[in-house]
Amino acid sequence: MQELLAKALPDTPRPADHVPDTVLWVVDAGQMIGRVSIRHSLTPFLLEVGGHIGYAVRPSARRRGHASAALGLALTVAHDLGIDPALVTCDEDNTASRLVLERGGGRLEDVRAGKRRYWLATGGT
Predict the structure, then answer these.
(1) Is the pLDDT confidence value at 117 over 60?
(2) Burial 5-37 (b: 16+ CB within 10 A, else e)
(3) What is the pLDDT of residue 1?
(4) Which one, of 91, 84, 29, 86, lies nearest residue 56 by Cα?
């Protein structure tokens, strides 16, 4: 747990191609069902295919709105970190994630290396 908390601190030693990130856990009825990572800045790689925010929901918990709720929370945290807008990517063939991003207000910029790149406002509309 301490390692995860330390990853969010800018002074924590890390490989040159890594950035500080905040990890949030998605919990429902006391069960961990997913996670969200908020990267505090973008490297050239993250700008191309990774983005500021990455999320995952356990297969058995999908299609219940958890990803949308997690994305909303992540956007609030990103805003508090001074990120606006936030880049979020998904695989070109990931229809569920594409819908989460588009319903969440994502604006498709383009597709690169098989990744759809969306920009989302973090400060509300």
Answers:
(1) yes
(2) eebeeeeeeeeeeebbbbebebeeeeeebbbbb
(3) 58
(4) 91
* Percent above pLDDT 90 for the chain: 79
Q: Domain boundaries in the chain?
A: 2-120
The pTM assigned to this predicted structure is 0.88
| pLDDT, tens digit (0-9, with 9 covering 90-100), for 7-23 | 766 776 777 788 999 99
DSSP class of 86: E
Tokens of residue 100, six digits: 């989460």
Q: Average pLDDT, whole number, for the chain? A: 90
- SS3 for 4-69 is HHHHCCCCCCCCCCCCCEEEEEEEECCEEEEEEEEECCCCHHHHHHHECEEEEECHHHCCCCHHHH
The whole-angstrom separation of Cα 121 and Cα 62 is 24
- Domain 2-120: which topology? Aminopeptidase (3.40.630)
